[in-house]
Each structure stands twice: as structure tokens, then as C-alpha cells.
Design a protein that fits this description.
The complex is a heterodimer. Chain A is mostly beta strands. Chain A has a domain of about 160 residues. In chain A, a hairpin with a 3-residue loop joins strand 22 and strand 23. Chain A is globular. Chain A starts with a helix and ends with a strand. Chain B has one domain: Lipoprotein localisation LolA/LolB/LppX (outer membrane lipoprotein receptor (LolB), chain A, Clam), CATH 2.50.20.10. Chain B has three helices and 13 strands, in the order H-H-E-E-E-E-E-E-E-E-E-E-E-E-E-H. In chain B, strands 6-5-4-3-2-1-13-12-11-10-9-8-7 form a 13-stranded antiparallel β-sheet. In chain B, helix 1 runs antiparallel to helix 2. The longest helix of chain B has 21 residues. Chain B starts with a helix and ends with a helix. Classes of the chains: A mainly beta, B mainly beta. Chains A and B meet through strand 1 and strand 18 of A and helix 3 of B.
């Protein structure tokens, strides 16, 4: 990774034609009308600057990446002058390499080396087969993907393609801060004395994945396999002799997955499905089968996606986990989007647990102004029961406004 | 054989064919297709979207095509505005059925197949639908000569084209105006049932590497009363392009 950063920096003085960049600066403000037992702050402001340089070193080689600099008012962003590459911290780094990769392509073979985003699966709201896709869940419902450090090889011949991934360094999902408003821990569970965060124990081994994809007239299908670790943590608790009485530690359990996904285009709508069977050798994690079935239809400027996500627990062992993916199962999922005009659109996204214990609804209006500016206003309503994954955040309904300048 | 003699020979040989073409709409379209044929094409497109209130949004893309008509592949990659920079569309045309299309969105790091029923959707806020970006092949349509009309001072054949049964299209039929002097397409009106819904007008004709090309296209969405002007800059034909640059893998990993 260090070598890749050096390559990226060396690329800067190269000829202007081979060097391109883009990026944006944005300011985002979130307002929470309600307090939570952990947090009485009602507003957060975060500023983010991102630059994405790319250098075409040869006909077969491109080096590209993105660098973030950010700050916020809630200290979810570190206050440290360091440049982060691994994305393993509990807080978001103030300065970081978001991704940095070398792409080599020759004939039907491509390889991507470095810190990169790897997205598998075909469904839209939940992807059970996406195992190399950790996320930043500091704000659980407004999450974003994190890149992983590794090597990816792709071979495409006719309508078939094979994707092989090797990730030597583990990147976890970033979980809500203990004591923050999105923490999945009700203080009452552990008494008023609170708890101490003992940090994370990261696995040492490397991760491997393979995916075979086939394209046909009106359909696509894939089979995938993953052998690695769950990027979502199990929490283990340690009893202490004095206050605080409980200590928490995150562990990331071994995980194997066999999965499949398919998309079939019919005359009136497209049907997409994805299924993943997850096994673990851990005594602390569950074996589960997760699946998603959805239909989508585009009619003029209106796009509609609706479906159901389910799970079967084939072996139950977990006592305390943070699992937003499972939190969206046994639920009806939907998304509607409408393009108002060349510069503006609206969307509505929802997840409703089948027992109605958790409801999440997000509406968004976005408008571009000129060639560089975009303003977005979003409102999220969360309701439900304290024991439900979605419902536990019922005090976190919020309004979010973003102003972005792209260049 | 000197150049003049060669030209005369070609003219003599083609004369009966052209005379015959004038009486049969299919022959006219075939001749237009033959004259527009090239091994590949590349241009930089400037898209100007004007809504009913006259507001303009500019977008630029790079377009490359390999092959011609029913057997071509094309990649269209946005360059500006910055927020859509890198968004790309791969179109794989087939002679016997509708094209396959995939859209790559860098921000999502995912490609999405554009389903057949989605082809009527406006392409990225422009007045072109995804289907309008397909290359039409003569074998996918039935033709009928309606008459002759003048467009921008050029006499044109006005030909009705109806999708054949195997072709899935949002349009019930189209009317195509083909210039009699150059066999270049001057205008296309597309109908849904009896209503004209889109009008594509070609202008700024020039002979580029021997191919008469309308370097300005104005697509009007008559139902929304908005229009998009596409201007082709740095247009080149028969540029050396590689088949491997027109795959899903290349769409995901641009060089």
C-alpha cells in the first residue's frame, strides 16, 4: 500500500493529459429532534473534502484513488494529525486514503491491486453476498462503504467472467461509538455505572473470495464463495470488579459463505434475487441463511423497487452482535425514485419489519444548481420497539441537509 | 486506373442500384446504412438539455463505437459535470434482438443492467431515452415509402419504419427522412400509437472521412416540451479500437 501511495504521488508531475482529478467539498448538517439516554446533542455538522486523482501510466495501467479530509462537531472524527490508510479506528480519521489502487488490464484479464471497493450481488437495498464490503456505521442509517486492501483478478471470456479476491489485511465495519446516540447498547442493560470500551481484536488471517458470473439474453446469474471473517463484530463482555462494572470488546468471527444471485428481465419488470449461506466455526456467532427477492420496474421517470429480505438461523450461538444486515431481514424493503427534471430528483426508501417492530423511512430531495453545486435535503423517520434492531433507534429520527461543490 | 476513370466506373456500376433504390424504401435505408458504415467511431459529445423554461444543463461525454449497425458495441463515458464524471454506459447491439445495456456508476462501484422495460426512460436527464442510443439495423424494421419532403433545403424520402415482431421497442413506429443527395438521415419522428413523442433533427452536415454526418442532433421530447442538443466534436471514423475495451470488465476498470 505504501508503494502504491508513492506511485500515486510520483504520478503528479506527469503529463497533464494522463493525469486527471475530480473531487468535492461538502458540508452536512444533521438535526435530531430527540435526545437519547446516551447522548443529548441535537445537532451535528460535518465538513468533508475529497479529491480523486487518477494517472494513466500506460495503455494497460491506471493508478487512481481518493483522499479524504474531514472534521465534525461531535468528535466522531478523530482529532489527530495522522494520515490513515487501514480504516481500523473507532472514529473516522481526519485525513485518510479512502481508496488507492492500480488497475492493470490486458486482453481479457484485469487485476486491481491496493485499497479498493469490492461490490458483489445484484439486489439493491441489502446484499447478503457482499462480504468484502465493510461500512462506516457511525450513523447506522446513513452509512457508507469502506474499501478493503487486497488484490482482485478478473477474467472475462464471452458471457462468462470469474472474479478472484485476496485480502491479506482485515478491514472491519466501523460501529457506532459506545456512549454515542447510535450505540446499540441501552445503558439500562448494564446498569447506570456504564461500561468501558476495550477496543477491537482483529483477526490475523487473510480472506479469499471467488465469483463466477454468466450473462445471457435477459438474465444474469452468479455463484460466489467467501472464506474470511465477518466485518461486523460480536461484542464480548468482561465483568469488572469495580465501576464501571462491564467492559466491552469487539471480535470478528471466522466466516464462510456460499452464495448465488440472479437477475431476470421480464416484459414488465425485472426480478432479482440473492441468497447467502453463512457458516462460522466460532462458538459466539450464528450460522444463518439470508436471502432477498425483489422486483423492479421503471416507468418513465419513476423507478420502483420492492422486495422481501428473509433469514433462517441454522445454528444460534450469538449473544450480542452488531448486525445491520440481519437487522434488515424479515422485512419488506422498498425504494421509489422520481426524476423531476434535468437537475432535480426525489426518492423514498423504506424497510418495515414483518412484525412491525421496526420501521425505517427515508425521503430525499436533491437539486443541482449550475454545473458544480448540489443541495440535498433528507428526512429519516425511525420507529419501533426497543428490542428490534431498527426499532432501538426510534429516538434517532433526523433531518439532514447537505451542500456539495463538485470540481 | 486514374481517379477520374475509377469514379466513372463506380458511378456506372452503382447507377442501376441507386435508381432501383429510389423505388423501394428498404433499399433506400440499406443504401443509407451502407454509406454510413464504418469500422469504428469516436467523438466528444456536448449535450445541452433545455427544459420548457429554457434552462440549460450541459453535459459532456466521450463516445467510442466498434463495429457497425446491428453488430456494434459502444461505450459512452461522461466527462462533465463533475458529479457525473466517470458514469458510463456499455451498449452491445445485436442484429436479431434489442441491445444489451449496462450502466456503471463509480460512486456505487456497481454496474446495473438496463432492463428492456427501462429503455423508455430518459438517459441521465436528457431527452434521449436509452433506446434512442441503440444503433438501428435495417433488418429489425419493416419499411413503407410515404413520399418526398424538403428539410433544410434538401429533398428527402419520407419513410415509415415499423419494428418487426422480434424487435421490442417503446415506439409503435417511426418516420425517417433520408436526404436524396447524400443518403444521410435528416430527421426521425417516433410515435407511440398515433402520437409523435420524439423528434430527432440532424444538422451541420459534413463529409467526415467520406461519410456524410449530421454533427448536430436536436432531440425534442414533444410531451415534455424539452429538448437536448448533441454536438459531435472531434469526430473520427475507423479509429483503431480494441474489442477488449467494450466489455463489462473494461466498463468497471477504465484505463
Amino acid at each position: 500500500m505504501r508503494a502504491l501511495c508513492v506511485l500515486l504521488l510520483l504520478a503528479v508531475p506527469a503529463s497533464a493529459q494522463d493525469f486527471t482529478y475530480r473531487g468535492f467539498g461538502q458540508i452536512q448538517s444533521t438535526v435530531y429532534p430527540q435526545s437519547t439516554p446516551q447522548d443529548h446533542e441535537h445537532g451535528v455538522v460535518e465538513a468533508l473534502f475529497r479529491i480523486e486523482p487518477a494517472y494513466r501510466a500506460a495503455d494497460w495501467l491506471t493508478i487512481a484513488g481518493s483522499i479524504d479530509a474531514r472534521i465534525d462537531t461531535l468528535e466522531q472524527v478523530e482529532r489527530a494529525w495522522r494520515f490513515d490508510v487501514t480504516d481500523r479506528g473507532l472514529q473516522r480519521p481526519a485525513f485518510s486514503l479512502r481508496d488507492g489502487r492500480a488497475t492493470l488490464r490486458k486482453g481479457t484479464v484485469a487485476a486491481v491491486l491496493g485499497k479498493q471497493f469490492i461490490r458483489w450481488g445484484k439486489t439493491d437495498i441489502l446484499n447478503p453476498t457482499d462480504r468484502f464490503a465493510p461500512r462506516d456505521f457511525l450513523e447506522v442509517t446513513d452509512n457508507e462503504f469502506l474499501a478493503v486492501i487486497g488484490a482482485r483478478g478478473q477474467y472475462e471470456r464471452g458471457s462468462n467472467s470469474i472474479d478472484l479476491v485476496w485480502v491479506p489485511t482485515f478491514t472491519p465495519s466501523r460501529t457506532p461509538l459506545i456512549g454515542g446516540r447510535w450505540a446499540p447498547l441501552d445503558p439500562q442493560t448494564f446498569g447506570t455505572a456504564g461500561f468501558v470500551d476495550l477496543g477491537s481484536v482483529f483477526p490475523d488471517g487473510s480472506q479469499f473470495g471467488a465469483r463466477w458470473n454468466v450473462l445471457g439474453p435477459g438474465f444474469e446469474a452468479s455463484l460466489s464463495y467467501f472464506d474470511g471473517f465477518n466485518h461486523l463484530p460480536q461484542y464480548t463482555t468482561v465483568a469488572l470488579s469495580g465501576p464501571p462494572l462491564v467492559a466491552l470488546r469487539r471480535t470478528y468471527e471466522p466466516l464462510r459463505m456460499g452464495g448465488a444471485d440472479a437477475a431476470v428481465t421480464l416484459r414488465w419488470f425485472t426480478v432479482k434475487g440473492e441468497i447467502a449461506s453463512l457458516f462460522t466455526t466460532s462458538e459466539n456467532a450464528d450460522d444463518v441463511v439470508m436471502y432477498v427477492v425483489q422486483v423492479e420496474r421503471q416507468s418513465g421517470e419513476l423507478s420502483l423497487v420492492g422486495g422481501y429480505a428473509g433469514e433462517w438461523v441454522t445454528a444460534q450461538r450469538s449473544t450480542f452482535e452488531f448486525a445491520p444486515d440481519r437487522g434488515l431481514t424479515r422485512a419488506f424493503l422498498g425504494r421509489a425514485g422520481y426524476t423531476i427534471g434535468p437537475t432535480s430528483d426525489v426518492s423514498l426508501e423504506a424497510a418495515v419489519r414483518q412484525n412491525l417492530d421496526g420501521v425505517w423511512l427515508e425521503g430525499q430531495y436533491s437539486r443541482a444548481v449550475g454545473s458544480h453545486w448540489r443541495a440535498t435535503l433528507a428526512g429519516t423517520v425511525i420507529a419501533g420497539d426497543e428490542q428490534d434492531f431498527i426499532g432501538q433507534y426510534h429516538r434517532n429520527s433526523h433531518v439532514l441537509a447537505t451542500l456539495r461543490y463538485s470540481f | 486506373m486514374n481517379k477520374a476513370a475509377f469514379t466513372l466506373t463506380v458511378a456506372v456500376c452503382l447507377a442501376p442500384q441507386i435508381l432501383h433504390a429510389q423505388s423501394e424504401p428498404r433499399k433506400i435505408v440499406e443504401e443509407a446504412q451502407r454509406r454510413a458504415e464504418s469500422k469504428s467511431q469516436r467523438y466528444q459529445g456536448l449535450l445541452q438539455v433545455l427544459d420548457s423554461k429554457g434552462k440549460v444543463a450541459d453535459k459532456r461525454w466521450l463516445f467510442t463505437r466498434l463495429g457497425s449497425h446491428g453488430r456494434s458495441k459502444a461505450v459512452l463515458r461522461f466527462v462533465t459535470p463533475p458529479e457525473v464524471n466517470g458514469v458510463a454506459l456499455l451498449i452491445v447491439n445485436h442484429p436479431d434482438r434489442a441491445s444489451d445495456q449496462w450502466m456503471w456508476t463509480p460512486a456505487l462501484q456497481r454496474e446495473r443492467r438496463i432492463a428492456l422495460q427501462d429503455r423508455s426512460t430518459r438517459f441521465f436527464g436528457t431527452d434521449f431515452s436509452f433506446e434512442d442510443l441503440e444503433e438501428r439495423d435495417v433488418d429489425q424494421y419493416d419499411f413503407r415509402l410515404i413520399g418526398e419532403e424538403t428539410i433544410d433545403g434538401a429533398t428527402c424520402w419520407r419513410i415509415e419504419s415499423t419494428p418487426s415482431q422480434r424487435k421490442i421497442s417503446q415506439y409503435t413506429r417511426s418516420e425517417v427522412w433520408i436526404r436524396q443527395d447524400t443518403y444521410a438521415i435528416a430527421q426521425v419522428e417516433s410515435y407511440i400509437k398515433a402520437e409523435v413523442v420524439r423528434r430527432l433533427r440532424y444538422s451541420d452536415f459534413a463529409q467526415v472521412q467520406g461519410i456524410w454526418t449530421g454533427r448536430k442532433m436536436e432531440m425534442t421530447d414533444l410531451r415534455r416540451n424539452s429538448r437536448t442538443i448533441l454536438t459531435l466534436d472531434r469526430l473520427e471514423y475507423n479509429v483503431p479500437l480494441k474489442d477488449e475495451d467494450f466489455t463489462l470488465q473494461a466498463l468497471r476498470n477504465p484505463l
